[in-house]
Amino acid sequence: MKIYLKFKMDNPDINFLITKAFKAKHNNNYWNQIIKLRTYVNDEMISECFEMIDSDDVKFKQIGIDVLCQLGNNRESFVESLFDKIFKILRTTSDENLICTSLFAIGHNNQYLKTKHFKTLEQFKNSESKEIRYALTFSLLGVENYKAVTMMIKLAQDRSLRVRDWATFGLGTQIECDDEEIRHVLYKNCFSKDHQIRHEAIKGLANREDKRAKAVILQELKSESYESILFDTILNIKHGEQYIPDLMAVYDKVRDDKNINPQWIADLQNCIEILKINQ
Which CATH number fits the domain 124-210, given the four candidates 2.60.40, 1.10.8, 3.30.70, 1.25.10? Predict the structure, then answer.
């Protein structure tokens, strides 16, 4: 059965890759073809992708979007047309995979988002699909629009651990917006049972120079959980050098403890040395 008839390009290599992407049974295989297709940065490929997006086949639509959303370093010439088609899809389709594809594509180009786009994006913040909510979170990373930040605050309290983690990361370190609502959710997430969420929240709170951050970090040190992620947090916040005495006290306590992973002790020592150099 032929599956690739309408979209026939002059370059047989491209035809072959599109066909392989269409037939791909596994995610890794699919993305291998998409990455190769993105190397053909020319008008013919742009036109071909738009044709696929306009087709009636969901898989072709996804291929067109996935290639075009990261085709070349300068997408300004066609991104407005791409967004027009993507947002039309988001307003009309109920296909979960196509919605996620569209949202991820927006995330790769969200510097081009306009005020008119956020009303469409807002419809997904309460989606029953955690995959859609995760893709929405990605679409909003680094966007400092009020509606985008409001959605991220909600997503940072999502019932899905993965959504909550990504949104906390987005709020904490990917934007510089600062208000009580942002600080409230970051402080709340400083006590998450998930260490990744906890430390993303701590970074965000500390970089906003919230006075509560120091107590949280000191509590993390006292907890003796021996997670190296804490050192990454301290190295990536403002005024991390203030914790040198506390880190040295921990190091003196554990340096000869054979029950503690030696790599963790080495990471602790490295953290102290870097902070001393940068102070």
Answer: 1.25.10
- The amino acid sitting at 164 is R
CA 172/CA 179 separation, integer angstroms: 12
pLDDT digits (tens, 9 = 90+) for 177-233: 999 999 999 999 999 999 999 999 999 999 999 999 999 999 988 887 777 889 999
Alpha-carbon radius of gyration of the chain: 23
Query: From CA 113, how far away is CA 173, in angstroms rounded?
Result: 20
Long-range contacts of 234-238 (CB under 8 A, 24+ apart): 234/271, 234/275, 235/271, 235/274, 235/275, 236/173, 236/203, 237/202, 237/203, 237/206, 237/207, 237/213, 238/206, 238/207, 238/209
Instruction: State how far the Cα of 144 lies from the Cα of 73, in Å rounded to an integer.
Output: 22
Q: What six digits make up the tokens of 11?
A: 């370059």
List helix spans (H) across 72-129. 76-92, 96-107, 118-122
d(CA 272, CA 245): 9
Q: pTM to 2 decimals?
A: 0.91
Q: How far apart are CA 153 and CA 149, in angstroms?
A: 6
